[in-house]
Amino acid sequence: MERTIQKRLPVAGDSWVTVDVYGEPDAPGLVVVPGVMSDAHTWRHVAGAIDAWPSVAVVNRRGRTPSGPLTSSYSLRTEVEDLGMVLDEFNSTRALFGWSYGGFIALLSANERPMRQVIAYEPVMRPFGRHALPALRAAEKAADWDGSVEIVNRQISGFSAAHVEDLRADCHGWAALRRLSGPLYSELGALNAAPPPDVMAQQAGQVDLIIGQCNRGTAPYGTSFDDIRQRVAHAEIHELAGQGHLGHIQAPTKLGRLLNNLAAI
Question: What percent of the chain has pLDDT over 70?
Answer without folding.
Answer: 100
